[in-house]
Structures are given as structure tokens and as C-alpha cells.
Amino acid sequence: MKLDEFRKRVFQEFGTDLNNATPANVRDFLDRMQLSDFATQRAQNPRVSLNDPSRSYEEIVKDTFAKILKLPAEEAVPLLWVIAFELSFSVIEYQYGEALETLFQNLD
User: Fold this and answer.
1) What average pLDDT does the chain have?
2) Residue 18, C-beta contacts closer than 8 angstroms, at least 6 positions apart
3) Do residues 68 and 76 lie in contact, with contact meaning Cβ atoms separated by under 8 Å?
4) 80 near 66, Cβ under 8 Å?
5) Got the DSSP string for 52-99?
6) What 3-state class would DSSP assign to 101?
7) Residues 6+ apart with CB under 8 A from 82
8) How far, in Å, CA of 66 to CA of 60, rounded?
9) What does the angle CA 46 – CA 8 – CA 33 come to, to the nearest 5 degrees?
10) Phi and psi dihedrals of 53, rounded to 5?
């Protein structure tokens, strides 16, 4: 997906200042983006091949970021933005969970 199309989708979903982003709707948006991307790939090539020599999650992460660095900026920016956005909102969701846990700790 090109950067302009990606930017348009993000702004439609969350507003131009991302004011409407919450951990829940960010997760939903990212899931829909991933499903859409997977459907496009499956339409182009219906066979799925799992031929990855990586032996650990660490190797997969390194390989992914190495591949992203080789992409044109127009393609790399949306990928890196999605990763950063997802990680940031995961932290927010975790912090909300910790705060709520203390509220309900003594209800037993």
C-alpha cells in the first residue's frame, strides 16, 4: 500500500490528529489491515509457503526489519508506522490493565 493511501485510511479511522484512537479500535484497525493485506496476497498467489529458515522470534524480527530497510521509503514508512503504533498502544493497554487491576484487587 502506498503512503498516501495508508495515510488516508489512518485519518479516516482515527481523525487527522489521531484523537479517536483507543487501544480497542487501534487493535481492530490493525487486524482489519492485516486481513485485507492477507486477502490481497492470497488473490495474487493462492499457495502459502512456510519456507523460513529462522529458528527463533529474534531471528524473525531481525529478518523483518532487514527486509523493511531494503524497501523503498514509500512502502517502508507505513510498515514501520504500524509497528510503532501497535507497540505504543500495547503499552497503553497494559498500563490501563495495571491501573484497573488495583481498583478491583480487594473485591474478593
Assistant:
1) 85
2) 10
3) yes
4) no
5) ----SHHHHHHHHHHHHHTS-HHHHHHHHHHHHHHHHHHHHHHHHHHH
6) helix
7) 30, 33
8) 10
9) 30
10) -75, -5
Grid coordinates of 7? 495515510
Among the listed residues 3, 24, 4, 25, the one whose alpha carbon sits nearest the alpha carbon of residue 14: 25
Amino acid, single-letter form, for residue 41: Q
- Nearest by Cα to 89 from 2, 6, 12, 13: 13
pTM of the model: 0.69
pLDDT for residue 103: 76
The predicted pLDDT at position 12 comes to 96
Can you give the pLDDT at residue 47? 66
Contact 82, 30 (CB under 8 A): yes
Contacts of 9 (CB under 8 A, 6+ apart): 33
Q: How far apart are the first and last CA of the chain?
A: 50
Helix (H, G, I), strand (E, B) or coil at 44: helix
